């Protein structure tokens, strides 16, 4: 059975607290593991959360502020120490190449794993991982081309920052009763899926359209077009809400969102499940973030992230 869930490793902004580690998030998706924004302590948090280096197939960095990237050195070295058998692909802003290089080679270690660097840059949507099979039916092994499309969108922050959006291609759900009525069974089902027609029976006669699932990761940013593009129609949206609404001027000055802004953006985008994270240390009551997101109009599933929490991707839309 496929596994699709978010593992939260850390939820603090700028500095860790007694209860919140620096940023770190792993999206587990059908044998693929995408590590987003590994801040300090990520390697330790992975151990506590039960996420192994072998689980990682991609690393996505939104920007090169320390709380989102200083854990890269340890994670990259751990991947090599554990001799991960597949290629690990790294995405990050091209303008921060010098920072990535420094972190990748921060100390001496033996390189045993191929780390494929694919920096991103430019306005609008940047496709960084196209799916090889538009049907979305084929399960990919870890390290191979993924059964999803991964894009990056420019955000608005004092340093160049990108959010990431994962889209599973639309497919079809087979209807057993119609297959049985047409006498199609066993290997013939796969043949029909590949070829679209078998002995006069069309694929659409024995199946219905299945919408691909969508995930987005939005970190440090002011409200901008990129936020809306990333969030649109997502099944699961992970988004920063560094400040509460009373501190909106402070949020805009430093290039961040408030809980109300995050909730409103999710509501307008039709998001099903919303995860708020990246909280300023100035606040001690996390329930206020949920209250403000609700007040802004979000009515779906809402999670105020805590370290080591696991959040499932919602079941497919019926």
Your description of this structure?
With 318 residues, this protein is an alpha/beta fold. The chain is built from 10 helices and 18 strands. It has helices at residues 42-49, 66-69, 72-81, 97-104, 176-181, 187-195, 225-231, 248-254, 259-269, 287-295; strands at 4-10, 24-29, 32-36, 58-60, 88-91, 115-117, 125-129, 149-154, 162-167, 171-174, 197-198, 201-202, 207-210, 214-218, 236-240, 273-277, 301-304, 310-312. The strands form 4 sheets. Strands 6-5-4-3-2-1-18 form a 7-stranded mixed β-sheet. The chain has a 7-stranded mixed β-sheet with strand order 7-8-9-14-15-16-17. β3 (32-36), α1 (42-49) and β4 (58-60) form a beta-alpha-beta unit. α9 packs across α10. It is globular.
Keywords summarizing the entry:
318 residues; alpha/beta; seven-stranded mixed β-sheet; 10 helices; 18 strands; globular
**Biggest sheet, in brief?**
7 strands, mixed
Radius of gyration: 21 Å
Q: Given the helix and strand composition, which structural class is it?
A: alpha/beta
Mean pLDDT: 93
The helix content is: 10-25%
Spatially, the strands of the biggest sheet line up as: 6-5-4-3-2-1-18
Shape: globular
- Number of alpha- plus pi-helical segments: 10
Count of beta strands: 18
**Beginning-to-end CA distance, first to last residue:** 19 Å
Stretches where pLDDT falls below 50 for ≥5 residues?
A: 133-143
């Amino acid at each position: 059975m496929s596994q699709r869930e978010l593992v939260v490793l850390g939820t603090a902004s700028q500095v860790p607290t007694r209860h919140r580690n620096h940023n770190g998030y792993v999206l587990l998706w059908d044998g693929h593991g995408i590590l987003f924004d590994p801040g300090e302590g990520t390697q330790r948090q992975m151990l506590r959360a039960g996420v192994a280096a072998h689980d990682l197939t991609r690393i996505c960095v939104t920007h090169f502020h320390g709380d989102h990237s200083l854990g890269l050195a340890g994670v990259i070295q751990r991947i090599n120490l554990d001799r991960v058998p597949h290629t690990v692909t790294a995405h990050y802003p091209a303008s921060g190449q010098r920072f990535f290089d420094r972190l990748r080679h921060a100390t001496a270690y033996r390189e045993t794993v191929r780390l494929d660097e694919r920096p991103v840059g430019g306005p609008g949507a940047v496709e960084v991982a196209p799916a090889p099979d538009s049907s979305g039916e084929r399960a990919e092994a870890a390290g191979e081309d993924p059964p999803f499309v991964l894009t990056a969108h420019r955000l608005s922050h004092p340093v160049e920052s990108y959010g990431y959006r994962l889209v599973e291609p639309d497919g079809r759900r087979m209807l057993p009763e119609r297959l049985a009525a047409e006498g199609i069974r066993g290997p013939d089902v796969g043949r029909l899926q590949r070829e679209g027609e078998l002995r006069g029976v069309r694929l659409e006669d024995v199946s219905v359209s299945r919408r691909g699932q969508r995930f987005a990761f939005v970190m440090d940013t002011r409200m901008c077009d990129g936020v809306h593009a990333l969030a649109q129609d997502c099944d699961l949206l992970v988004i920063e809400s560094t400040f509460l609404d009373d501190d909106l001027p402070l949020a805009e000055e430093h290039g961040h969102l408030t809980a109300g802004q995050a909730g409103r953006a999710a509501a307008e985008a039709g998001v099903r499940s919303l995860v708020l994270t990246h909280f300023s240390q100035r606040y001690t009551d996390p329930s206020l973030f949920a209250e403000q997101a609700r007040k802004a109009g979000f009515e779906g599933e809402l999670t105020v992230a805590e370290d080591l929490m696991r959040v499932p991707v919602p079941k497919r839309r019926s």
